[in-house]
Design brief:
88 residues, mainly alpha, 5 helices, 0% strand, elongated, binds zinc ion
Length: 88
């Protein structure tokens, strides 16, 4: 009878989120430090960071300092550039 072989399928990524994020094109092939951090964080943390980035009342320097405290060094300028859609 048909025996199902399971668990042998190897995926390159751990989650759908990771798969989708890996497809997001980075401007001119430049690795954006902010995008890299978003990819490194857990799903929960990355969602939180994205929310803070979207809220314009949070300055880029505030987010930079918060990330540094959490062990991720990203300059305020890098965060500001990410927020402008990687332009300039
Ligand atoms: Zn970015």
């Amino acid at each position: 009878m048909g025996e199902a072989t399971q668990g042998s399928k190897e995926l390159a990524v751990d989650s759908l989120l990771e798969a989708l994020q890996s497809e997001v094109p980075l401007n001119g092939g430049t690795r954006c430090a902010t995008c890299i951090v978003i990819n490194k964080l857990s799903d929960e943390d990355s969602k939180e960071l994205v929310l803070w980035l979207a809220d314009e009342s949070n300055t880029s320097m505030l987010i930079s300092r918060g990330l540094a405290k959490y062990g991720f060094v990203v300059s305020g300028a890098s965060i500001a550039r990410h927020r402008r859609g990687h332009n300039g």
